[in-house]
Amino acid sequence: MNTQPTKSKKRIEILDIFRGFAILGIFVVNITIMNSTFLNQDEFALQFTSNIDQISEKILQLFFYTKFFPIFSLLFGLGISIQALKMLDENRLSFSFFGRRMLILFLIGVLHIILLWSGDVLNLYAILGLFTTLIIKWPNKLILILSGVFLFFPFYNQVFEFLFSLINFQPEVYLKEYTGAMVNKIIKHGTYLEGLKLRILEYISNIPMLFGFLAPIAFSMFLLGLYLGKNKIYNSLELFIQQIKTPILLIIAITNIYRIAFLFVLVDLKIFKLENYRELFVKAMVISDVVMGLFYLWLIGWLYYNTKWKKVLSPLKYVGRMALTNYIMQSFIGLILFSSIGFKLYETLSPSEALILAIIVFIVQIIWSKVWLKYFRFGPLEWVWRCLTYKELIPIRVPRNFSNNL
């Protein structure tokens, strides 16, 4: 079956803006983990008591944590559906094509973990993306229902604890001998190979969080993106944004009341200390955060179509067009900033400094992406991924007198 790339149409700018915005939020969250890993993060954060750092921490909790991963996941699912439906319309939809595409993404994710950072999600996306393509022809209503089921199901911890016990997998043992001080020493003063070993062990030890917490959210958003793609919402996005204005504002008001109550009231109550209740409270908080992420997309879309903010938002599209490259680049920058092969800043930045640094890096990425796309049609990794997927060397340079939709 022919799966050669077809002549590209004009890109949908707002989708690239969404992707760029997601890349910003993901890096703001990731840089806090790069600055201090999960093993020592709570203890490290206790030393920062200034007003600006306390405010920065609340900003992260209220506006960033668990908000941008769902956004990126939804856009990934939407991207799969747009490509798959286009191939389906042309009678050339091929599972082997998407299998190859997801395998390459999985391998990129593995290299990302080994060479740069343990916080990769690309291999998870590759696995879930493959499942998503298998159900592309399912009824739209069923896809939407499954999206809700995967998001609202509250007992993933118990399910994965049971599964891990069946295969005798004990992820907690992989970092058992490591203390926060040891991790600090390895990252700041150890060799690159010692850091590589630590990254692999960190990834394995974080598998429960990856599959028990992140995977259900990602798959739910993949399915929602697939549903929106199958209904071709992107062709009438301005109208869709206007149609859902009232319900989304009502939902975000309710969920934000809960989010604020959770962060500032519930966590101090005795009932929160009871495990069964705590899990339900946390699950409701996660759902509220996902809703907040979706609200961000609605708000950006509304500002884009209805206000003069379009000019302010438009530069995000350059990063969004090179989302894979910029995502991996952020990990490379993190390695240089925090590890022994670079500036050794691990566990030296306050929350406010990390937040400011993330924004500065992202601004540089906007400028770099814009310059790159002036001369090239794809980002470097996007081009490699495309060439390997289609099994041919695709031209990357922008021809003379050709607009690259900048």
UniProtKB/TrEMBL annotation:
Pfam families registered for this protein in UniProt: DUF418
Question: Could you tell me which InterPro entries the record lists for this protein?
Answer: Bact_Transport_Assoc (IPR052529), DUF418 (IPR007349)
List residues of the DUF418 domain.
229-391
The UniProt keywords, alphabetically, are: Membrane, Transmembrane, Transmembrane helix
Its transmembrane ranges are 21-39, 59-82, 103-136, 142-167, 207-228, 248-269, 281-304, 324-343, 355-373
Where do the coiled-coil regions begin and end? Answer: none
Cleavable signal peptide = none
**Looking at the keywords, is Membrane present?**
yes
**Taxonomically, which superkingdom?**
Bacteria
Keyword check for Ion transport, yes or no: no
What's the name of the protein?
A: Putative membrane protein
